[in-house]
Amino acid sequence: MTDRLLFFLAICFFSATSVVFAMHAGEEHKEELLGNLQQVRAEPLFVQSDNSLMIRIPAGTFKMGSSFEENKRHLKGCRKYDKSCELWWFNDEYPDRLIFLDSYWLDIYEVTNEKYLEFVLATGHRFALDQTCDTDKCRDGNLWQGASF
């Protein structure tokens, strides 16, 4: 239970800090983003009928993309590790803009393969084809711990 509480507190902390970082990254939108900081607060957990936990992510605005000056800094950092970096690699970052997202619910834990199979069978939804999983480890849930393909 303490792991869940720590995870919940981490979600609340990162929700608040993401607005602060967005303000730092987008000084030109400071007033608009500052209004969002006032709205950030701990949101309640929602327990679904299958006992999986969800957390409500509050609505808000964030800065998406980069300015030309930011991309020049990104290029400089990239060239520290790869001399072949080119400025055009960052073209999909233009233009920087404010994006508003309505509030939404997010699962706290990943959906396991078992739960996904239950969903597919219950709804008739088409399977997502993933040919990389051909062992029993894929069906046992957590692929990140000790799985090798």
UniProtKB/TrEMBL annotation:
<dbReference type="InterPro" id="IPR005532">
    <property type="entry name" value="SUMF_dom"/>
</dbReference>
<dbReference type="InterPro" id="IPR042095">
    <property type="entry name" value="SUMF_sf"/>
</dbReference>
<dbReference type="InterPro" id="IPR016187">
    <property type="entry name" value="CTDL_fold"/>
</dbReference>
<dbReference type="GO" id="GO:0120147">
    <property type="term" value="F:formylglycine-generating oxidase activity"/>
</dbReference>
<protein>
    <recommendedName>
        <fullName>Sulfatase-modifying factor enzyme-like domain-containing protein</fullName>
    </recommendedName>
</protein>
<dbReference type="Pfam" id="PF03781">
    <property type="entry name" value="FGE-sulfatase"/>
</dbReference>
<feature type="domain" description="Sulfatase-modifying factor enzyme-like">
    <location>
        <begin position="53"/>
        <end position="137"/>
    </location>
</feature>
<dbReference type="InterPro" id="IPR051043">
    <property type="entry name" value="Sulfatase_Mod_Factor_Kinase"/>
</dbReference>
